[in-house]
Write a structure and sequence with these properties.
By secondary structure, this protein is α+β, with helices and mostly antiparallel strands. Strands 1-2 form a two-stranded parallel ribbon. The chain is elongated. The relative contact order is 0.29. Pfam families: Lipase_3 (PF01764). This is Fungal lipase-type domain-containing protein.
Length: 52
């Protein structure tokens, strides 16, 4: 079991990144939401667009 699965159901996860880190934060937030069904808040600063 990993740490994400061990978290309480009512908790939220914040993903934050700047520039290329913002793009990785966006991908990570999507992965967590899709794979674990957690509430995710995403904050990026000067990040390139991800996907289309």
């Amino acid at each position: 079991m990993n740490q994400i699965e061990n978290r309480q159901k009512q908790g939220v996860i914040h993903c934050v990144g700047h520039s290329p880190g913002g793009a990785l934060a966006a991908l990570t937030a999507d992965w967590i939401k899709a794979g674990f069904g957690k509430t995710v808040y995403l904050y990026t600063f000067a990040a390139p667009r991800v996907g289309k």
